[in-house]
Amino acid sequence: MMKLNWKTITLASLLFVGVPMLSIMGSGHSLQPENAYALSTDTSPVGTNRITEVVKKQDKAVVGVHSSVKMERTRGMDPRNPFGPGVPSPGPAPQGSGSGFIIDKEGHVLTNNHVVDGADQVKIQLHDGKEYEAEVIGKDPATDIALLKIVRKEGDTSPLPHMKLGDSKNLEVGEWVIAIGNPFGLNHTVTTGIVSAKGRNLGSGPYDAFIQTDASINPGNSGGPLLNMNGDVIGINTMILSGNGGNVGIGFAIPINMAKSIVADLKKDGKVTRGWLGVTIQKMTEELASSFGLSEPKGVLINGVLPKGPAERGGLKRGDVIVKYDGQDLVDFSALPKMVGTTAPGKTVTLDILRDGKPVSVEVTIEKMQESQA
Predict the structure, then answer these.
(1) Structural contact between residues 178 and 211, judged by C-beta atoms closer than 8 angstroms
(2) Could you give all domains of the chain from N- to C-terminal order, each with its CATH number?
(3) Is 216 in the active site?
(4) Which of 144, 232, 320, 352 is catalytic?
(5) 114 belongs to an annotated ligand binding site
(6) Which of 9, 265, 298, 367 has its CA 20 to 30 A from that of 342?
(7) pLDDT tens-digit profile of 106-134?
(8) Is 114 annotated in the active site?
């Protein structure tokens, strides 16, 4: 690497900047354009203190989530009988920690399922250090979302700060975002970046549609909020892609619209009720499209119809290609499970299909997905 000294920098500056540089030094005026903040918008913090304002307003609603299991009993050596079966002794209590955020004045907290999964005890730590027991209201392993509630003593009516849930559907690639959480136990750490991509399918489940961001996300950030520049929650920070366990600028968050669609179910039943179609599907490729006489690889191929399921009752067959679900185009293979899953059981939907290359419409009544089917 070439080493530059002050003389080199000065000479280069004069060679390439020339007259404007001399003008600055002589007049005291800067080269800043008249309308320096013209590029700042509602979604850009450039030239503003917007990030600072959002953090000041929302940081207090971010919490630490600490989970633990009961003390395990192990068999230790009996000093009176070294060759005997041993005596019971307490083992270490496995613990975990992550982040979360309060979503209403009742004290409901959103976090990741993997932060509290298998825990016997969950505690919430507020921004001021106060700790509360937390009740696990409901969990959804399929989307890695959990809903907790802060347990307060009788008479404790102090207002709880909470966040507004935004609309992740309107999120744009390149938009600025803020992540707040407790990476490596460092409480209330703020990082910023942009949305790198949307709808990422990582193969971790049928409902994958992650927001990808380069805002630093590390172990302990799980469950914390991803905010837009208006301070609205647009995602739940969930995981990183890394070879060494540390941040490399590729983090993923669950879109908040996905969480909003299941919070009511978690409050009511502690689990999510999803729709079930009763088919196995395959991605439509160029080769498959050609073999089916299609001009382009659109839609989703049905490669199996489960007996006595809603699809069979509706008349769907193996080899049908679904191109529209309830009026919505299927431009992506992974869209169908999400559409079916969010359809209320008992609702009848229209499926536009191609059968032997010809358009056909069928009506199917969606049923409730059972745990074994999930």
Answers:
(1) no
(2) 60-75+91-151 (2.40.10.10), 168-269 (2.40.10.10), 275-368 (2.30.42.10)
(3) no
(4) 144
(5) yes
(6) 298
(7) 999 999 999 999 999 999 999 999 999 99
(8) yes
